[in-house]
Design brief:
Oligomer: heterodimer
Distance between the termini of chain A: 33 Å
Number of strands of chain B: 0
Distance between the termini of chain B: 37 Å
Order of helices and strands of chain A: HHHHHHHHHHHHHHHHHHHHH
Structural class of chain A: mainly alpha
Number of strands of chain A: 0
Radius of gyration of chain B: 20 Å
Helix content of chain B: over 70%
Helix content of chain A: over 70%
Structural class of chain B: mainly alpha
């Protein structure tokens, strides 16, 4: 058992650092560990193949390709621009408005497109010329774009929460989705508070732009098609009209009809979008398949229990343990993207959290929030590279303005960690359940 | 010759992907339609859409191998160029090739044979599970094919870059 665990950890880390795709690194490490516990190597090969396929046999996962397609189709035809305009109306009156707008635009567009990188690219490319023209400090603006780009991954619909639902053994997706709202808004809010503070200190222009009712109504009208997608999904789920998977199907149909109506969609671009969505799905699914196999191996060899006891051995005080888990995840999260982070650590940490009386929904939100902070940090942080490029700010200049933003986000993470109601109150009110 | 074979493989997988996507999409929509409009919820949709996702995922896994889309950390790779970069690509291809051949092609193939032997059937529709599992060795075959091609001619492959893709998309959106 200890041998298997050792092989798993060492092989996975070595392969990943070498540059072998993460899913293959997990798969190979799991296979080698399996060799030590199965009677023949043959069994290990067949079991691996079967586990990968049977792990994907879930109606919940059917939502993933559909959400990715809907997000991809929404990411064309100027939707990003319309949502940025909406963000201008919403927070254009705050000090440091052009930086504040990028945060809100990321929260809106990230939720709809489902991609932090796509969101950082569109928001940064659109707003940085305006920010530069208005005399904004560009490193601060680019840092605000980086820090807020993952907000949309917590605000539903969220592919990360669907993956968590599966790996945590069937935590209801509807509850997770609704639970993500307040923490996601808090994440955005924490960056906005910092921006307001430095704007007052004179580090950002405080010019504000107010919109007349007419202008505001017009801008809202133009953003309505995108907002309607969220309304269909969340309205449908909260109203008990359909499951998350069915909502994803209806959302995909909606974006398809929208694309046809606006004539932005041709058969060729549609086929291209479907293939893109399929590749995006497959990359996540292979990771899900191999991680579920790893998780099964960990559970069946008693390793989860051993690791859990080791963790609880450090301290049995839930507050201390949550603090330690958060620190560990923040460090590991700088290396791991959200999906692999959730897939690798949920099977190990969730049993411990549950033993301490933390609900799976609350814990899923803590982990996702935590890993969201991690994707904006080097050495992985794709959003960092994107924001640096679209705003024309050298990477090295981003670190300093990012640090206080991370500090504020970590404070928000602390609130989400220690106040379960921030995650569980809304699902209790809207769905009448918290798990 | 190899390049045109690769194009054929890409096209075949693309057709497979679009078809699996269509099946799962229509199943989910039919499930909603039959429940609310026909008042007679379909029973086959859930199982068929689940199986379509398995096919989509496996064929997509193979397709992503050909496009070098599987997420990897490029801390080492970003420091390499020229011959050493090609050597690194070959090394990664050799490692993934071994896994694809052993688990997907061989393990998956044996799994299909075993499912045929014991005549394992699905829960609702009672279709042979061998048909569901068949996508594993098929994907394995394509994975091995692409990885051998990378071993032979890594210079013909371009590593997918999320950052570049996002920037290109933004450029295109601006022009539109």
């Amino acid at each position: 058992m200890t041998t298997a665990l050792l092989i798993l950890a060492v092989v996975f880390t070595a392969l990943m650092m070498f540059g072998v795709p993460v899913s293959f690194s997990i798969g190979i490490a799991t296979l080698l560990a399996l060799f030590t516990v199965t009677p023949t190597p043959n069994t290990a090969l067949i079991v691996s193949a079967q586990r990968v396929a049977s792990s994907l046999d879930s109606f919940t996962l059917v939502a993933i390709p559909l959400f990715i397609l809907a997000g991809g189709l929404m990411n064309t035809g100027g939707i990003a621009m319309r949502l940025i305009d909406l963000a201008k109306v919403l927070v254009g009156w705050l000090p440091g408005s052009l930086a504040q707008i990028s945060v809100v635009a990321n929260a809106l567009f990230g939720a709809i497109s489902g991609s932090a990188v796509a969101s950082a690219a569109s928001v940064g490319a659109t707003l940085s010329p305006l920010q530069r023209q208005a005399g904004y400090n560009m490193p601060i603006c680019a840092a605000a774009n980086v820090a807020s780009s993952p907000c949309g991954l917590l605000i539903p619909p969220s592919g990360a929460l669907i993956v968590y639902s599966l790996i945590s053994g069937g935590t209801p997706v509807d509850v997770l989705f609704v639970a993500g709202y307040i923490p996601g808004i808090l994440m955005a809010g924490s960056v906005m508070v910092w921006l307001a503070i430095i704007a007052r200190r004179g580090e950002l222009p405080t010019d504000v732009r107010r919109y007349s009712m007419n202008e505001a109504a017009h801008i809202f009208w133009r953003a309505l098609p995108a907002l309607a997608m969220i309304a269909i999904i969340m309205g449908g789920i909260v109203g008990g009209i359909f499951t998350a998977t069915e909502a994803a199907g209806v959302a995909a149909l909606y974006t398809l009809v929208l694309g046809l109506l606006y004539r932005s969609l041709t058969l060729k671009t549609l086929v291209g979008s479907v293939i893109n969505a399929s590749v995006g799905t497959a990359v996540v699914m292979l990771m899900v398949g191999v991680s579920m196999t790893m998780s099964w191996l960990l559970a069946s060899t008693g390793s989860v229990q051993m690791l859990g006891e080791a963790i609880i051995g450090v301290s049995s005080n839930p507050y201390v343990l949550l603090l330690l888990l958060n620190i560990l995840l923040l460090v590991l999260g700088t290396f791991l993207d959200i999906t692999p982070g959730l897939l690798i650590f949920t099977p190990i940490f969730l049993p411990v959290a549950m033993k301490l009386g933390i609900s799976p929904v609350h814990f899923g939100i803590i982990m996702t929030f935590n890993l969201c902070i991690g994707i904006a940090t080097p050495p992985v942080g794709s959003t960092l590279f994107v924001a640096s490029r679209v705003s024309n700010v050298p990477l090295a200049q981003l670190t300093k303005p990012l640090l206080p933003m991370f500090a504020f986000m970590i404070v928000a993470l602390g609130l989400v960690t220690y106040i379960p109601a921030l995650s569980l109150w809304l699902p209790q009110v809207l769905l009448g359940k918290t798990g | 010759m190899l390049k045109s074979l690769r194009k054929v493989a890409d096209r075949l997988l693309e057709v497979g992907l679009v078809l699996s996507f269509l099946v799962l999409f229509l199943c989910v929509l039919w499930q909603v339609f039959s429940r609310y409009v026909l008042n007679n919820p379909a029973t086959f949709t859930e199982e068929v859409s689940r199986f379509a996702v398995i096919w989509l995922s496996l064929l997509g896994t193979a397709y992503a191998c050909g496009k070098l889309e599987h997420m990897a950390y490029n801390m080492l790779e970003s420091r390499l160029s020229g011959a050493s970069l090609l050597l690194h690509m070959r090394a990664v291809a050799a490692i993934t090739l071994a896994f694809s051949a052993a688990v997907f092609l061989y393990g998956g193939g044996r799994l299909v044979l075993r499912a045929l032997q014991v005549e394992q059937l699905s829960a609702t529709l009672e279709v042979p599970m061998a048909y569901v599992y068949a996508c594993i060795p098929i994907a394995g075959l394509f994975m091995v094919f692409y990885q051998v091609l990378i071993l032979i001619a890594p210079q013909d492959f371009k590593i997918a870059d999320e950052v570049e893709a996002a920037l290109e998309h933004v450029e295109k959106e601006k022009l539109a």
